[in-house]
Amino acid sequence: MISGYLARQTWLHPVPAGAKLIALAVLSFAILPVDDWRLLAAFLLLTLAVFASLGREALKRVTGLRPLFWILAIIFVLHALTGDWQAGASAVLRLVTMILLADLVSMTTTLQDMMQALMPLLRLLRPFGVNPKKLSLAVSLAIRFVPVFSAQWHARAEAWKARTGKKPGLRLIGPFIADTFRMADHVAEALDARGFARKTPRG
Questions:
Q1: Which tens digit of pLDDT belongs to each residue from 90-142?
Q2: Residue 203: what pLDDT?
Q3: Does 202 have pLDDT greater than 60?
Q4: How far is it, in rounded angstroms, from Cα 118 to Cα 25?
Q5: Counting C-beta atoms within 10 Å of the first and last residue's C-beta, which end of the chain has fewer, N or C?
Q6: Helix (H, G, I), strand (E, B), or coil: what is residue 194?
Q7: Which sequence ranges are marked TM in the entry (predicted)?
């Protein structure tokens, strides 16, 4: 179910999951209001430098963004058609950087460590009827599945090219969304089988 974890230990693996999640949140909020594409390009280069410091296997995962090329290209072109290519470049650079930052956390943190790091904060929502265990699992899965969905798109695109010899373009969006919902159903069934849908003792 989960395939995004980098098995080989790197310098980022021993860093506590809570520290990595806080850094991810802070950096994401810091990037959101930035409109200067040159500054965002610098953010992206720094992120790529971190990937390079983790080794060849980690750096190779950056190529997993290739399936997103057409979506990013559309975002850029739509902005360019309105005469504001700089806004398009900023949107693309911001999106790529945030995905790569999430992937850094995902590939160096186990799901269990991520859930344990989120639990203390989410327990504050218990008076409002929120189950912190379920919510921590949902947030952890959301972070974890970003690279998984990227890999899924890549596999489908490669299969299309192997069958037709042509680039898939946007025609795979429909099947990809259907696969995403199907995967969500399977994950829900797996979690239900493991007792996540049942009432758990308060703790």
A1: 888 988 898 888 888 888 988 788 888 888 877 888 888 777 777 777 777 77
A2: 42
A3: no
A4: 12
A5: C
A6: coil
A7: 12-31, 37-55, 67-85, 91-111
Token readout for 135 is 């919510």
- Range with the lowest mean pLDDT among 70-84, 114-128, 181-195? 181-195
Structure tokens at 130: 């929120």
Q: Which stretches within the chain are classed as H helix?
A: 17-31, 37-53, 56-60, 69-81, 85-108, 111-122, 132-164, 173-193
**Which structure tokens are listed for 125?**
């929502």
The span from the CA of 80 to the CA of 132, in Å, is 44
Q: How many C-beta atoms lie closer than 10 Å to residue 66's C-beta?
A: 13
Residue 89 near residue 39, CB atoms below 8 Å: no
Distance between CA atoms of 69 and 142, rounded to whole angstroms?
21
Q: Which pair of tokens denotes residue 163?
A: 């069958």
Distance (Å, rounded) from C-alpha 126 to C-alpha 15?
Answer: 28
114: Cβ–Cβ under 8 A, 6 or more apart, which residues? 17, 21, 105, 136, 140, 143, 144
Lowest-confidence region among 28-37, 58-67, 160-169: 160-169
Q: Where are the domains of the chain?
A: 17-109, 117-194
